[in-house]
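Raw record, unedited: Membrane protein, Rhomboid family
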Amino acid sequence: MFANLHRTHNIPYLLAFLTSTLLYLWYGFVSDVSVSDSALSFHREQARSGSWWQWISAHFMHTNFFHYALNMIGLALLWILHAEYASVKSFGINFLVLALGISLGIYYFSPTLTWYVGMSGVLHGIFAWGIVIDLYRKRKSGYLLLIGLVIKLVNERFFASSTFMAELIEAGVAIDAHLYGAVVGLGLGVINVIYDRHQRAQNCSKVK
């Protein structure tokens, strides 16, 4: 796995890490404005009234150290699992589409969620995207990862109590964002596969 990594595969993960880290340090130790009051967090009314950047910026924000650390650990795990699939361009497009998709999902389908921060929804989406590529490349581990993702989402939706995690991150766990991220990520993975097959077919026709 690591043998297939090129230095450029590290860049998008590093950029996501640095952006989240700088924002965490700013709001945690410098700014007098709390994360919940920040103009970078997703606030339903503000987003609707023209604060368009919140649809993206909220996904780099975190409520406290535990929230930040958990998501950065998740980002590192995704780097280990699927960094070989990611270029700066593909990761950037995926991140933007996932952030927008999750924010739109929250806005239209989770009306009780009035504000949101955190990268976990996007991470679920990047994970789902990587699973589709695993399956496309006939990696058996993809099936195990897919089963694990489904079990996690079902458990969050119907069985798990999020009280402990909510206390840890000092905010409610937005399980809807995880679901929206996974759905959008699966869709991105399918689009990636269709595009790759189209490119391969074109290359084969040129050779003939």
